[in-house]
Amino acid sequence: MADRLVDLRSDTVTRPTPGMRRAMAEAEVGDDVYAEDPTVTALEERVAALFGHEAALFVPSGTMGNQIGMRLVCEPGQEILCDADAHVVTYEMGAAAAIFGISTRTVVSSGGRLDAAQLIEQVRPQDNWHLTATAAVAVENTHNRGGGLVQPLDQLRALWDWSRGAGVAVHLDGARVWNAHVASGVDLATYGRLADTASVCFSKGLGTPVGSVLVASAERIATARLWRKRLGGGMRQVGVLAAACLYALDHHLPRLGEDHEHAQLLAERLGVDPATVQTNMVVLDDLEAPLVAEAAKAQGVLVSQVSARRIRLVTHLDVDRAGIERAADVLAELLDR
Ligand SMILES: Cc1ncc(COP(=O)(O)O)c(C=O)c1O
Q1: How far does residue 95's CA lie from ligand 1's centre (Å)?
Q2: What's the pLDDT score for residue 1?
Q3: For residue 4, what pLDDT band results from cuts at 50, 70 and 90?
Q4: What is 126-179 written as a DSSP string?
Q5: Tens digits of per-residue pLDDT, 132-147?
Q6: Mutate to test the pocket of ligand 1, among 14, 89, 91, 202 (most ligand atoms within 8 A of CB)
Q7: pTM of the model
Q8: Which of 148, 215, 308, 327 suits 297 as a labelling partner, its CA being 20 to 30 A distant?
Q9: DSSP string covering 201-238, please?
């Protein structure tokens, strides 16, 4: 049954391909806490260059990448401003507050879409002893709870241009910035240069079992290395994991468009406006989510319940065209579409 399941819950469910496993098995390794793992170093240098930054750090998860990234640009007692549905405040267990003493303040956005003016209006000055100072703004691209929405480049630019004069930093949660790049055609370096710190994930659309990379200035990455060790994220012969990430850049990044096409196909078959599907996620609203999820599961299709009335489908490497068609058949019949 497991092999016949079409698992559309998330793009994190992928398993490493035979080619990726071979790359992992053959990786040259060393002790990365001593910064002596050549494969990790190669990955860090490659990702830093891709995003137009001086340096990078391999971390175990997107959560660690985000939290260290935010700590680099925000002191305890200061605040980070972000969208109310951002991953950093919704799914990271209150880490900014619990671990770093960082206060977060949220703004309700329209479906996760960045509105630079709306955020800027909420920023509090750093030289007023009555107020919690806003040290940074966090942006998510693509936006997970926004259904894989690609942030508009003009808004990213407006925020960045304003932030330079205001002394406010920008952190990018780029867990799926690869999908944004493929969908929009905007260079990864363009996205990278519009952020002071950015965390990018390999264990989502790129299909590795683990791994994220944080990019920033060399000085900030030196500090990030200390934070990673302090949080228990110092890893040893971890080139086996970095090799999977290098493999993914060569073999899986170029195929992400296929996931986006599959999402379009699902949208068409399920009566979702294709314009609302920008990358690899399809959101189905106004339904009894637990009932639909249960009935789909009984027919071998796994979906994710975002809320009582909303279901999310995520396309990825491990679901081919035939799987997408099967999922569309099952869901179309269940939803009478
Ligand atoms: C937008 C976004 N940011 C960060 C993360 C965190 O990644 P991880 O699960 O590796 O901690 C996720 C995970 O799904 C995500 O969707």
Answers
A1: 13
A2: 47
A3: confident
A4: SS-TTS--EEEEEEESSBTTTTSBPPPHHHHHHHHHHHHHHT-EEEEEETTHHH
A5: 999 999 999 999 999 9
A6: 91
A7: 0.97
A8: 148
A9: ESSSTT--SS-EEEEE-HHHHHHHHHHHHHTT---SST
